[in-house]
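Justification of resources, computational component.

The compute hours requested in this renewal are based largely on the per-chain cost of generating structure records like the one below. Each record pairs the submitted sequence with a full structure-token output. That output is archived, and it is also reused by downstream analysis tasks.
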Amino acid sequence: MGLHYYGLRATNAGYSVDFLNLIPVVTFVTAVVVRVEKLRIGTCPGKMKVLGTAICVVGTMVISMYKGKLLHLWPTHLLKPHLQAIGAASPVSDQHNMLIGTLYLAGSTLSYAFWFIIQVRVSKDFPSKYFSTLLACVLGTVQAAVFGLILDRDLSAWALKWDLQLLVVVYSGVFNTGVSFCLISWAIARRGPTYPSMFNSLALIITTVLDSVLLGTDVSVGR
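The structure output for this chain reads:
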């Protein structure tokens, strides 16, 4: 998550979500290599997995490398008056280091893939999903606190106020981590590591639409 947020800050929402489309690909390939998932290319489900993997790779390459004509499908930048009121810079233009951001996002994708695979063993040896989620969150908090103190020792940067930043923190903690971890762990225990990771591709569509409507990011034919 830390790598994804750094990658998001260095690029933009539309670009960073492209890497979510690669998570099922990396998860599937890694799971086959470490023999958590069987390829079974001779069966219909096996062929569909390989075909789906190829489609994810091609789709991500098209979205990342081909833009084409801009599309004006709906009113965009609904948050522009609010951003101007608080003196915030436009998120669309805040692309200060695409290369570093891409490396962060690639590292995040690989980390997510290994997390899905590790959950297969965790669900067998430690079936208490709520307690395992609690332990993961506690350990993640400790790691984030250590890295945060190393990178930013200004105590004022740690202050939380009753604003949008606090809402983002609460939402990320409750839904993006707590609820999400429990549901994903449950799905992995029933269907394996590849199945839940496939739904990351839906985030690509939803984020692209919301990024355009709320923040004004251009949507092109390639998107």
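Confidence is low (pLDDT under 50) at residues 89-94. The chain has one domain: 2-220.
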